[in-house]
Amino acid sequence: MAQAIRLHETGGPDILRWEETEVGEPGPGEARVRHHAIGLNFADVYFRTGLYPVPLPTGLGVEAAGVVEAVGEGVAHVAVGDRVTYTSGPLGAYSTERVLPADSLIKLPDAISFETAAASTLRGLTAAYLLRRIHPLQAGDTVLLHAAAGGVGLIFAQWAKLLGIHVIGTVSTEEKAEIARAHGVRDVIFYRRENVPERVRELTGGEGVPVVFDSVGKDTFEGSLASLKRRGLLVVFGTASGVPSLDVNQLNAAGSVFLTRPGLADYIGDPAERDALKDEFFGHVTSGRIDVTIGQRYALKDAAEAHRELEAGRTTGSTILLP
C-alpha cells in the first residue's frame, strides 16, 4: 500500500492525516510515479486552510520528483524507469507514489538529484518567468525582492546577479541577511525594524525601483507600492500574509504604477515555453552557476511540523519532505 498525507477538512497543520491509499494503474495519458522527494510550498498552506478551495477529501502538494513505474496508453514523452520531476497537475504530491497526468512530467537531467529537483522545480520555474518574462529587465537595473532568503528568493538573487541586475532584498533576521548576501543580494533591508520604502529611496538616490517582486502580499503591499519609481511595476506573485485590498486610485497616487498578479501555470502551460524556461534553469544548476539551498528536510509523515515552521517564518531556502 502507498501512504499519503490527506485533508478531510480545512484548518491548521493538525488536520493533516497520514493514511494508506490505493494508487491503481495509470489510464490513458497518465503515469504512475514513485516519489523520492517532495517539495513544500506556501501554496500548500493555502489549500490546507481553504484559501484555495478544493473538494474534500483530497491529497496535498503539487511538486515532487521520482521514477516512472508505469505509463498508460498514448504516453510517449516519458517511459518506465525515467527520472522525472513535476510542479503542476492535481493535488497529491504528498504521497509515496501516485498516478497523475503524464504531460505534467519533466525529465530530469542526470546531474540533478531528486532532492534538488523537488526543492527547486517550482521555485526555479517561478524565478525563470519572473526574470525572463514579466518585465524587460536589463543589466544595471535595481529591483526590490521581498522574502529574499526564501526558496524563490535565493534562486532569484543568484540568477539576477548572473544577469547583472542588482537586488535589494528584505529579510527578518541577521542570519537570513547573511544567507541572502551569500546568494547575490546586494543590499539588505530588515523589514521588521527599518522603513522599507525609505531605505529603497536611500539606496536608489531617491528614485525607487522599476520593479518590486512581492510574495508576501497584504503586509508588504503598501510599502511595495511606495518603493516603486514612477510608472514602475509591482509583481505580487504570492500572498503569504494574506490577499491585499486595492483601491485602484492607489496606483495613480504611487506614480501611475502598474500591478500584476501572475501565476506559474500561465507561464508553463505551453510545453515549448515550459521547456525553454526549464532548460535555462536546469542549465544554470548543472553548471554550478545557481546553487539550490535545501534548508530543511522532514519525513513526509511529519508534514504538519514542516507546515508550522514554514508559516512561522522559521525556514530558509527550500524545504523538502522525504517518503
From TrEMBL:
The keyword Kinase does not apply. One of its GO terms (cellular component) is cytosol. CDD domains: QOR2 (cd05286). Signal peptide: none annotated. It comes from Yinghuangia soli. SUPFAM superfamilies: GroES-like (SSF50129), NAD(P)-binding Rossmann-fold domains (SSF51735). It holds the Pfam family ADH_N. This is Quinone oxidoreductase.
